[in-house]
Specification:
By secondary structure, this protein is of the alpha/beta class. The chain is 22% helix and 23% strand.
Length: 213
């Protein structure tokens, strides 16, 4: 018997006679009328862009037919020569990357090769306007978690239709059984003296392209 099985067996034995406990489920399942800002939100993409900008990320807007041009411009501006690409990403988003080597993560790239990538491009499962948060769930165009944690640069394309108002609305759309990654700006942390260090737990640079009107 493994150590895990031994621990679980002991826990089951210890709580065998414990009474059933009702778990309250009265938490919010939708944002309030005023949201975080105290007033109704009309322009979700605009609010999302504002909040993402607060995190020191670069936010760009693009029409449905302009994504490839914006992606190519961002890759050139960041000096990207090797770009990791998850399975299922729309090929039209990559059409302008003539001088960039695309590292297809299918089959999965080795960690050392992924670490040498200059960046990664993904879509997202959902985005939260009130908090400027992007959520990845490993679905098509998002890839496995390591794909967005090892490269130093993340370019995320967010369709306007994927943006919801608050965290409750986002949670309602997500499957808790999937590997969820919540991203609020570039990876950053601070020590006890509040010295900010970026890129410790993930990409230090984040570009977000919002697609749609």
């Amino acid at each position: 018997m493994s150590a895990r099985e031994t621990i679980l067996r002991r826990i089951r034995a210890a709580v065998a006679d414990a009474p059933e406990v009702a778990v309250p489920r009265d938490y919010r399942t939708a944002s309030g009328a005023g949201g975080l800002g105290g007033s109704a939100v009309q322009d979700l993409p605009g609010l999302f862009a504002e909040r993402v900008d607060d995190y020191r990320a670069t936010v760009l807007r693009a029409g449905p037919g302009e994504v490839a041009g914006v992606v190519a411009e961002r890759a050139a501006a960041r000096g990207v020569e090797r770009l990791a690409v998850p399975p299922g990403l729309p090929e039209e988003w990559l059409a302008g990357l003539c001088d960039v080597r695309l590292l297809r993560d299918d089959p999965p790239l080795a960690n050392d090769e992924l670490d040498r990538a200059h960046g990664v491009i993904t879509g997202c499962a959902v985005a939260v306007a009130e908090t400027g948060t992007i959520v990845l769930d490993g679905g098509p165009g998002q890839g496995r978690r390591a794909l967005t944690l090892l490269p130093d640069y993340h370019l995320c394309v967010v369709p306007a239709g994927h943006i919801v108002r608050g965290v409750p609305e986002a949670v309602a759309l997500l499957d808790p059984r999937r590997p969820l990654t919540w991203i609020s700006g570039p990876s950053a942390t601070s020590d006890i003296e509040l010295d900010r260090v970026e890129g410790v737990h993930g990409p230090r640079v984040l570009d977000v392209v919002i697609v749609g009107n």
